[in-house]
Specification:
Oligomer: single chain
CATH class: Mainly Beta
Distance between the termini: 35 Å
Number of helices: 2
Strand order of the largest sheet: 1-2-3-4-5-6-7-8
Helix content: 10-25%
Number of strands: 8
Structural class: mainly beta
CATH architecture: Beta Barrel
Radius of gyration: 19 Å
Strand content: over 45%
């Protein structure tokens, strides 16, 4: 297994294990619990056109490769359909630049902490919508920037006896989005 496969295995295995837990007969938590936790795995997408706009007319060509993101979620269900969630995400993206006979690449690290109000419709298959406040830190090559603002997410999921699996798309900020899978368990 090469280094990239080992990294992907370490990130994907916890999500798969968490997603399979509701199927085990020895798992005996109360399904009516108001608290839940989850692991998130997905892709952090950086808008390439906004970065290219910064370098327009400079003679430098820029490209962006989306990176992997991993996160944690803790929540409290205030009702059958509404909840409050605290979420942590950490991801990266690779930027390559070339021009004037020089080329190079750099990894952008993106870390977010957010609090969301979340709506999940009823039924085994459900719609997910969330809106919240987010704080993000972006750093690369000794440069660091922090920002706060609104964040919005939509998606869907499937409920199991003790949790759920969700697919969601979240707008982190104007130029960064997250597409990911979450495995959630009630506790």
């Amino acid at each position: 297994m090469d280094n990239m496969e080992a990294i992907m295995f370490k990130k994907i295995f916890p999500i798969l294990a968490l997603s399979a837990l509701p199927f085990t007969t020895s798992y005996a938590q109360d399904s009516d619990s108001k608290f839940y936790g989850g692991l998130k795995l997905g892709s952090m997408a950086v808008d390439e056109s906004s970065i290219q706009d910064e370098f327009r007319g400079s003679g430098i060509s820029v490209s962006v490769k989306d990176g992997t993101a991993f996160g944690l979620q803790l929540g409290y269900a205030t009702s059958d359909t509404f909840g409050v969630e605290l979420e942590y995400l950490s991801g990266d993206a690779d930027i390559k630049a070339s021009g004037f006979g020089v080329s190079g690449s750099e990894t952008i690290d993106i870390t977010t902490i957010a609090i969301y109000g979340a709506y999940r419709s009823g039924g085994d298959f459900y719609f997910l919508g969330k809106l919240g406040l987010l704080s993000e830190d972006i750093s690369f090559e000794g440069f660091s920037e922090s920002d706060q603002g609104l964040s919005l997410g939509i998606g869907g999921g499937f409920r199991f006896s003790q949790g759920s699996v969700e697919l969601e798309y979240t707008i982190i900020e104007e130029d960064v989005n997250f597409l990911g899978l979450t495995g959630r368990l009630n506790f």
